[in-house]
Amino acid sequence: MRTTRVTAAAAALALLALTGCGAADMTRQASPYAAAQGAKTVTLSVQSWVGAQANVAVAQYLLEHELGYRVDTVQIDEVPAWDALSQGRVDALLEDWGHPEQEKRYVDDKKTIIRGGGLGVTGHIGWFVPTYFAEAHPDVTDWKNLNTYADRLRTAESGGKGQLLDGSPSYVTNDKALVKNLDLDYQVVFAGSEAAQITQIKQFAKERKPFLTYWYKPQWLFEKVPMTEVKLPAYKEGCDADPEKVACAYPHTPLQKFLNADFAEKGGKAAAFLKNFRWTTEAQNDVALMIAEQKLSPREAAEKWVKANESTWRPWIPS
């Protein structure tokens, strides 16, 4: 769901997840609408977490209904999305949580991708416990006290240690290194996806059980399950430069958009619109909540938001 380097193993797992489950392998297969010369078509990369789906749903709705484009979407994990974007298999990525290695390779060196500006949302990854547990045990919110609670946070999957629940191994995460380098008696357990992680968190909350989880803001779930962040050692610039030696918190990251360079030059009003697209955390959460909790389809959620917020999106539409 981000602002650190993904290990080669995580990237390989991301690609395996794409191909092993029957989804499109974007290193081999392009959308039929990507980079279609002379046609009013746009292909957007959409990540698996619901906030990213909210961005794409609103962008797609406005591109289709206000600018008359045909929009295709392709779900693809974070690192493979950069390869697909560089090769023109997708035209735009609307929510990147920070991949400095890919940015240097494709934006600065190869110049096959351009920066599309900020999304308007600041992302932050952290470790969280349910607020009901933090209120009963205030010291659990300091990482130095986590080992005291390892027995309380043990599960069948954590092998006798406390459980630190993560989502997909394809997400940007330093958690295994943090557990090792901070000498914590915990085991990182991957739920497998954002949806699976949400299901587990909701179940813990329903039973009022304690849990420790990797989670991120913005995310609509905080409105349903209040959680309190555990303070890790303070983030300082460069403290996460070596993935094996990370012993600091995750940074707060202004989320960024990126466009294929050819599309940015030749994509006309669609490219201009995507550069202009910029909204707030609250707006993203509104749409995400409609999708995840109210069970509206992304298109239905986008339509509902668009009809209620014309003053916000009208300036995005190029003349």
Structure at a glance:
The protein is of the alpha/beta class and 319 residues long.
What can you see in these coordinates?
- With 319 residues, the chain is an alpha/beta fold.
- 36% of the residues lie in helices and 20% in strands.
- Strands 1, 2, 3, 4, 5, 6, 7, 8 and 9 form a 9-stranded mixed β-sheet that branches.
- β1, α2 and β2 form a beta-alpha-beta unit.
- α10 packs across α11 (298-308).
- The two termini are 34 Å apart.
Q: Indicate the percent of residues in helices.
A: 25-40%
The whole-number mean of residue pLDDT values reads 89
* Residue runs with pLDDT of under 50 for 5 or more positions: 1-30
The structural class is: alpha/beta
Computed Rg: 20 Å
Q: Between the first and last Cα atoms, what is the distance in angstroms? A: 34 Å
Strand content: 15-25%
Please describe the biggest sheet, giving its number of strands, its sense, and whether it closes into a barrel.
9 strands, mixed
How many β-strand runs? 9
Large-scale geometry: globular
Number of H- or I-type helical stretches: 12
Run of helices and strands: HEHEHEHEHEHEHEEEHHHHH
Oligomer: single chain
